[in-house]
Design a protein that fits this description.
Layout: H1 7-27, H2 36-51, H3 58-83, H4 87-100, H5 105-108, H6 128-142, E1 149-153, E2 158-162, E3 165-168, E4 180-183, E5 193-201, E6 206-213, E7 219-222, E8 228-236, E9 245-249
Parallel strand pairs: 2-3
Antiparallel strand pairs: 1-3, 1-9, 2-8, 4-7, 4-9, 5-6, 5-8
Helix pairs in contact: 1-6, 2-3, 4-6
Amino acid sequence: MAFIYDPATFKTIANYLGLADKNLRDELDITIVGSGISLVTDSRDLISAAIGDASIGNTDLDASATLLQAFRSKESSLSSSLISTYTSLITAIDTYFSSSRAKTSRNYFNSKTPDTTLDFVSSGTASSVGLSYFRRLYERTQGTEIITKLYFCSQAAGTISAGSGLTAYGYTSDFTNAALEVRLPNNYVGTATTMTVTGLSSTGTTLSISVTVGSGNSTADVGTTQKFASLSSIGVPAGLGNTLIEIWVR
């Protein structure tokens, strides 16, 4: 049996935990017929209808009003009580990784070596839904995005816009914000060259940062402490034309 920190094993755990969180969230979706919250609401409506009956006696009215309040209270608290159900498991996972690998699960699976490569997006596979919910669960618990590939492109030199050459991979509308990193996965280590990364910062302003890549390195930080909520474009220099460029969470 593979160890927990084996990428394939942990990917399965992350997928299962993400699907478990999805199931709870579905129970809180009032638009889903038969969900937990919809059934509680339907029950409350029946109680309200009974109270509205003109023939109801005072004793029954008072008792029904108390019951109605109990249902309303549960409606109000159901979201907060269920939403944090699995956060303790995320904390326990990171405690395990810190003890066994000296890093959190996020920092261990940085996809920079074969042993630490885990695609937390897995677009187009049976795991994509569960992993997407796991990423959101992790971010809610730990306040940081998991290290994933957000965008990629392989275009001629020029300004490459998101959705038109700069393709979103792990980026989705519920992404919060993170410090970023440029990766040249085909191990480009030629002459140092500068490219520009432009997008929306974590504070809501437009942010444009020059990044030097190459000269023996195939990765480079996008700025220092700056965080992006999304990207709008990257400027591909002539030296990187048609080279595969990836933008990752750092």
